[in-house]
Amino acid sequence: VNGNYTPNNCRWVSAKEQNRNKRNNNIVTINGIKMIFSDAVKKYSVPHTTAWHRLYVQGKTAEEAFNMRNGG
Description:
The protein is of the alpha+beta class and 72 residues long. It has helices at residues 15-20, 37-44, 48-56, 62-67, and strands at 27-30, 33-36.
């Protein structure tokens, strides 16, 4: 990550994969499993803004934020 760019330590990846490989990704832990916030949104079918509000505004745990129904 912090070294020089050389052919030995570079590879081409898709933009999607590159975005997943960033230090500033939000990681959530649900039932002991760590995953990127956006992956949890997809896995648990909770709208992004709903999950974000539950976690970072209401202060809910990740389990609470992703296991609640949309009206919850």
